[in-house]
Write a structure and sequence with these properties.
globular; 9 helices; Rossmann fold; alpha/beta
């Protein structure tokens, strides 16, 4: 008897199509993200991985299809309606996307000031707590220009989790990082995964994805061609899987 329960779906993309002029990027993208999992997305350069994330958060408008979250289709929502959704689905940009003129503490406090009624004391306490969790204790008054690349990425991650979103979207989070900073960021992500974090992890970094993802989908020719667990992918002889994993150091 199969005692495994059916995973709860946190987000579902159904038949998403997107073109920029004559260039078709998505030609029927469909997949489900399960609650409490990190789903990796692989694909060649220009395959539209980041466009998927931007479509989920409303920064791009699909030409057709549905993006279902908590029973609601996000595609037709207005900017005002999306403002509320963005407190529940958070985006970690590739470069951290910190406000240059604000300190680390002010960057992290920004979503709390915009979306909550917490007092200044409560905000400072929450900022301190999150900074400690991402190994940045004491960096409150530093400006982004004073941070290393790894610290900027961790600060961007910290800001993304300030409102305890339901889903986090990672866009190439390890790009440009050395192995030490990559490892530190992955450990930060893993610590939140243990708390039940749900995320999509877009990356070219195959070893990083294998370290933190539960399942991986491969975007090919405008569609999600394969979705399998990390363990299945490590053992797979599928030509598309091999095109990504050959030569990658699998931990």
């Amino acid at each position: 008897m199969n005692t495994q329960s059916t995973p709860t779906i946190a987000l579902s993309l159904k038949n998403i199509w997107k073109a920029f002029g004559e260039k078709e990027v998505h030609r029927g993208v469909s997949f489900d993200l399960h609650e409490g999992e990190i789903l990796g997305l692989f694909g060649g350069s220009g395959s539209g991985k980041s466009v998927i994330l931007r479509s989920i958060i409303g920064l791009e408008q699909p030409d057709q299809g549905q993006i279902l979250f908590q029973g609601k289709d996000l595609v037709p929502l207005t900017e005002r309606e999306l403002f509320k959704i963005r407190t529940q689905i958070s985006y970690v940009f590739q470069n951290g996307a910190l406000f240059d003129s604000l300190t680390v503490e002010e960057n992290l406090a920004y979503p709390l000031r915009a979306h909550t009624r917490l007092s200044d004391t409560e905000i400072r306490r929450k900022v301190d707590e999150i900074l400690e969790m991402v190994d940045m204790k004491g960096s409150n008054r530093l400006l982004p220009s004073e941070l290393s690349g790894g610290m900027q990425k961790r600060a961007g991650f910290a800001r993304a989790i300030m409102l305890q979103p339901k889903i986090i979207l990672f866009d190439e989070p390890t790009a440009g990082l050395d192995p030490v900073n990559t490892g530190r960021l992955l450990q930060n992500i893993l610590s939140f995964k243990k708390r039940g974090m749900t995320a999509i992890f877009v990356t070219h970094d195959i070893p990083a994805a294998f370290e933190i993802c539960d399942r991986v989908g491969i975007l090919n020719q405008g569609r999600i061609e394969l979705v399998m667990t990390v363990e299945e992918m490590k053992k797979s002889d599928h030509v598309l899987v091999k095109s990504f994993t050959t030569g990658a150091h699998i931990r």
